[in-house]
Specification:
162 residues; alpha+beta; five-stranded mixed sheet; two-stranded antiparallel ribbon; 5 helices; 37% helix
Length: 162
């Protein structure tokens, strides 16, 4: 069976900010002192790894089980890792930081020079209490970036390690 690998790429958003990269770097810095941040980073790393090798359809249709070993103890989470966001081709990679905080990474698939890429543009935290949900706004901003990448892919995707 031929496993197709997808490149995961973080690009600057409409404000020229690497929102996803900055968030992950911040979490990485926090993980050096915080076990909680380290746990989140390990789960996210596994989620990103799965996304790079699993077919998108599989991740959307089935619950994904992620197991990590943290401080010698196995931890498992099982949930829908990827969800389409009603505007083609925008998706979210989902991760619950707590019962109240739900982290979302917005991306779109993009073929370029025979390479399959998942291009990440936005990330944000959705909360239940208070009810803060920027999904639609972030989805629309991600779609605008998709349109920009489609018009001028070399501007966003050139210089990427192949």
């Amino acid at each position: 069976m031929n496993i197709k690998e997808h490149n995961l790429i973080m690009i600057n958003d409409e404000n020229g900010e690497d929102v996803v990269g900055d968030f992950l770097n911040h979490l990485y810095q926090k993980s050096k002192e915080s076990d909680e941040a380290k746990l989140h980073l390990m789960f996210l790393n596994s989620a990103f790894n799965l996304l790079s090798v699993q077919p998108l359809d599989t991740l959307i249709k089935r619950r994904t089980e992620i197991t990590i070993t943290f401080n010698g103890e196995q931890r498992t989470r099982r949930y829908h890792l990827v969800k389409p966001l009603r505007v083609i081709p925008i998706y979210e990679l989902r991760y619950a930081m707590s019962g109240n905080e739900h982290l979302r990474f917005l991306f779109f698939p993009f073929e370029y020079k025979d390479q399959s890429n998942y291009v990440f543009v936005k990330c944000f935290i959705k909360t239940l209490d208070p009810n803060i949900d920027e999904t639609d706004r972030m989805r629309d901003l991600t779609y605008q970036m998709y349109e920009r990448v489609k018009e001028n892919p070399e501007l966003y995707l050139e210089g990427i390690e192949e």
